[in-house]
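Objective 1b. Sequence-to-structure analysis of NAD-dependent epimerase/dehydratase domain-containing protein.
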Amino acid sequence: MRTTQKTSSRRTSDKQKLPSVVLITGGAGFIGSSLARTLLDQGITVYVVDNFSTGSRENIRPFLRNKLFHFYTLDITKPKFFNTFSRIPFDTVYHLACPTGVPNIQPMAEEMLLASSFGTLHVLELARMHSTRFLFTSTAEVYGAPEVTPQHEEYTGNVSPIGLRSPYEEGKRFSESLVAMYVRKYGLDAKIVRVFNTYGPRMSLSDKRVIPHFLHSILTGANITIYGTGSQTRTHLYIDDLLRGLLLVMRKGSRGEVYNIGGDKQITVKRLAETMLHLANRKNGVSYVPHFIEDHQHRQPEISKVSKLGWKQTIPLEEGLKRMIEFHGIA
């Protein structure tokens, strides 16, 4: 894979320039399809690539008749993806493609590592060829089992390179390293966002992440299953707030910088279950079972860096949960 084209330097004023053609990798996932919807509503041409490893055709179905929307079923780790998009001009890249979900870490370990290595390399090289702006969605998982709370962007984390969660944690860390190399070596206008737990109405209830998992149990009348004691804490951010953050960092963030985006208030998993049952006016039982994989006790972002760009969380957790519950016709 070679290219002789060099990335042209961009003037500072270009940061404010709105994109005209956007490539979203992993665009059939929850976040990617939500981002596509937002960009299409702004009249922007959107190309989406996904191989449906964890994405869903249902997520992109509403866009298929939109003339601004173009979808390709491709694997970013394969040459066909690179060859296809080397011929399609675009000026902005949101790189989200990677299998997600803690339950998928072991069964999809190889796919996660390949997407984070060969896949990210392909996407970066295309961005360099086309001299585009680039945003990589990393994850709070790069902090591993943090010994510092809240986690700031300079914190290097507490991660095992061979632990059970390493295919996702180390995969994303390697992707970040690739992005940083392209910034330093080629001057690519790239930023990194570390995404913390995000939720919203269009999340599939078959998703095993905590909020849709609890909501599925509430909807079906089954016991809510909590792994471990339920004392582990997380923060949660409504999808609209995350999308505003991604667009803002792409527009105003600094080349080569990393930004945490997430909710800033921790809640225990047990308290989250109780809150959702209260909001849905249900009395499901709760079962506690041993976790199927090593778990992390705390996760909370330090968000002062992205706040300086003008971002803040606007939708409190209870309000966001109400919207999600009403969307699924439960309350």
